[in-house]
Each structure stands twice: as structure tokens, then as C-alpha cells.
Write a sequence for this structure.
């Protein structure tokens, strides 16, 4: 179902600006709050903004409230929160006032959500019901060719039976890569002969199914055995991925996730696969930063800066004090050094630079505390990058690549 989700996401994005052209709500606050929420980053940030919006403006006879619910459903789908997408999408279809394009896209989204086999809401009958509704609406209204095409493609995949005859490898590829039915893939693998289980591609797909099913330790065991038998960039990457997913619950998984993702990147590089090398190396570095909670610290710092910028006007007294200090220090340097053709010592220049740094921070709404935090974050970033470079060098030497 993965490809279907991408198609539906494209259809959703095309609907982005269509509803705004026909608004007739006159309440400026009502409209402005909707626009503010709409400009948030698509995904969890925009979902939160629209959830706050519908709580504040709960009257679903108002078009902007209906549209807010519409985008909560669509963004939930894009976040692969299918249960929430279904819950809000069904609620949306109970409202009156959506245009045919919105109604068709809601049904297409519901068809996709119900059709994801790994989702808790999987229901093939309901998937077909909403997909057929999308086809019916799109085929009888102009300008919805994109929805019609996507809905027909979805219906075909929902109704097309598996090939009457397929090899074990073909079956695993279909179950894992196309249907994303990981439980069925695991069951199929367990029922295979020893020779089929020894097939490299089948074993890799089996490990992927275990990983995607949340059975991370079992996936790690499979990929470790494979990597020991036949070194492979792809297997190393899957092993690193499995450890990375484990690291969300166990900090002990961070180091091996970084180690194997670096190995994957180096092996991809040896294969001249630049695209995959960059992906693996970037993920390895991200894991190392995550190990030290760097991104959480950065988010906290940015949130603090945003709060301080909102109150920048209250820093006027501090700004004036720092400007006086800056003036005094410049005058001191001029009178005691530059006016008599002497180069000011470094400690005098450092003192001036420190004052100017604090002044810039105060003018942006910050404080000396946040300046220190920023410097600490920069130092930590440099330390982690240096550690990462050493890890890459160590793994490269170990593998003799």
C-alpha cells in the first residue's frame, strides 16, 4: 500500500489552496486564526494548530471549522496515523458543506487508510466502499481527474488477487514491499523449506518484516547472521535501522546503530552508490546526536529564544546599559591605545567583543544566559562531530575499506 499513500498524498496537496478562494466568513479573528494554523508546517505541528482551532471555533456550520477538521484528517493520514485519519475523516463526512473535491479526497483518504494491512483499522470492505465513493464523485464532477486516477489505481490493488503461481521470493516481495502485510510475510517464511530460507533476498525480506512488525531483536539476530556470512551494504543498513528503532526504548542500542550505519555507508561508497552512502552516513550522524539528546536540547533552546524574542521590547533598559558599556569600552581603547598608536591588548578587545555579543542577544530578545547556552550547544555540536569523524575512521580501518 506504500505507493498508494504517496499518490493520495499528492492529491491531498493539490487541494491545499482551493477552499480559500470561496470563503465568505466575515469574522476577521475566525479567518486570521485559520490562516495562521494553515501556514504551520504540515504534520504534527499543523494538526496541533487545527485541533486548537476547532476547540476555539467549534461550530461546524462555519466553513473554516469544517476545513480545519479536513486538514486534521489529511495530515494524520500523511503522518501514517491511520486510526486518527479514519476517526476524523468519518466525522468530516458527517458534516454538510464540503465541495465535491473535498468530499472525493476524504473518501480516497479513507479508502487508503482502511486499505493499509498493517494498520489497526484495516478493513478491505470499508476500503472498497470509500474508494468506490471517491470514484463515483470524481467521475461525475469536472476537475477531479487526479482523484479518479488514484482511486481507480487503489481499487485495482484492493481487488487484484495474488498471482496464482509465484515463487517464494516473489511472494515475500509482494507481502513485504507491496502489501506491507508483515505478519503474513513472517508466517510465509516460517512455512518455507530450508533451501528457500537460505535465499539471501528472502532472508533479508524476512528480517525487514520482523523489524517492521516491531520484533527488533529478532530482526537484529537475522541481519547479524547475514552480515557475518556475507558482508553487504544493504544488510548492514537494515541492521543499523533495526538498532535505531530499538534506541527509542533502549539507550544501549545507540552505539550499535551508529556503528552499523557507518559500515553501511562505507560499503555503499565502495560500491559507488553515492546516494545510499549519503543517506546511511546522515542517519548514522543523526543517531549519534540523538544519543546525546542534542536535538531535544536544541529544541528547548529555540523555544526559549522564541519566548524571549516575544518579549524583546521589555529589554530596553538592558540594551541601553549595554550600549553605555560598549561606548565606554570603545572610548577606553581609543584613549589608552589607538590615540597614541598602540595596538590594544587582546583582553581589551575580548572585553569589547563580549559586551557586543550580549548587546546583540539583548536586541534579539535574548539574555547572557541564552548566549551561554548557544555557545555550549555549539561546543557540543563540534564535540559530537569530532567523535563521529573518529568513529568513521575507526570503522573504516576495522573493515579495511
Amino acid at each position: 500500500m506504500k505507493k498508494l499513500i504517496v499518490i493520495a498524498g499528492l492529491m491531498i496537496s493539490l487541494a491545499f489552496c482551493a477552499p480559500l478562494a470561496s470563503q465568505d466568513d466575515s469574522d476577521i479573528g475566525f479567518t486570521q486564526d485559520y490562516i495562521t494554523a494553515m501556514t504551520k508546517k504540515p504534520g504534527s505541528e499543523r494538526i496541533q494548530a487545527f485541533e486548537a482551532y476547532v476547540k476555539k471555533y467549534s461550530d461546524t456550520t462555519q466553513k473554516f471549522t469544517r476545513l480545519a477538521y479536513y486538514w486534521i484528517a489529511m495530515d494524520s493520514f500523511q503522518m501514517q496515523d491511520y486510526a486518527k485519519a479514519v476517526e476524523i475523516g468519518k466525522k468530516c463526512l458527517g458534516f454538510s458543506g464540503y465541495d465535491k473535491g473535498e468530499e472525493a479526497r476524504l473518501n480516497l483518504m479513507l479508502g487508503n487508510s482502511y486499505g493499509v494491512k498493517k494498520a489497526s483499522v484495516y478493513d478491505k470492505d470499508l476500503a472498497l466502499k470509500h474508494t468506490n465513493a471517491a470514484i463515483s464523485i470524481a467521475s461525475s464532477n469536472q476537475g477531479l481527474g487526479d482523484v479518479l486516477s488514484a482511486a481507480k489505481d487503489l481499487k485495482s490493488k484492493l481487488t487484484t488477487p495474488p498471482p496464482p503461481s509465484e515463487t517464494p521470493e516473489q511472494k515475500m516481495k509482494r507481502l513485504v514491499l507491496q502489501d506491507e502485510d508483515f505478519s503474513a510475510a513472517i508466517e510465509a517464511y516460517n512455512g518455507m523449506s530450508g533451501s528457500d530460507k537460505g535465499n539471501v533476498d528472502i532472508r533479508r525480506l524476512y528480517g525487514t518484516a520482523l523489524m517492521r512488525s516491531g520484533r527488533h531483536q529478532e530482526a537484529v539476530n537475522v541481519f547479524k547472521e547475514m552480515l557475518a556470512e556475507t558482508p553487504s551494504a544493504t544488510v548492514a543498513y537494515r541492521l543499523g535501522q533495526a538498532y535505531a528503532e530499538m534506541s527509542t526504548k533502549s539507550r544501549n542500542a545507540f552505539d550499535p546503530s551508529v556503528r552499523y550505519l557507518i559500515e553501511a555507508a562505507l560499503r555503499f561508497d565502495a560500491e559507488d552508490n553515492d546516494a545510499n552512502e549519503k543517506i546511511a552516513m546522515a542517519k548514522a550522524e543523526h543517531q549519534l546526536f540523538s544519543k546525546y539528546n542534542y536535538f531535544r536540547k536544541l529544541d528547548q533552546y529555540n523555544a526559549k529564544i522564541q519566548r524571549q524574542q516575544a518579549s524583546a521590547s521589555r529589554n530596553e533598559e538592558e540594551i541601553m546599559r549595554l550600549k553605555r558599556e560598549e561606548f565606554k569600552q570603545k572610548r577606553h581603547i581609543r584613549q589608552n591605545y589607538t590615540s597614541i598608536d598602540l595596538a590594544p591588548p587582546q583582553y581589551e578587545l575580548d572585553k569589547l567583543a563580549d559586551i557586543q555579543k550580549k548587546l546583540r542577544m539583548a536586541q534579539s530578545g535574548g539574555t547572557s544566559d541564552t548566549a551561554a547556552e548557544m555557545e555550549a550547544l555549539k561546543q557540543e555540536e563540534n564535540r559530537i562531530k569530532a567523535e563521529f569523524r573518529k568513529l568513521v575512521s575507526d570503522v573504516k580501518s576495522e573493515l579495511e575499506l
Observations:
- Confidence is low (pLDDT under 50) at residues 1-26.
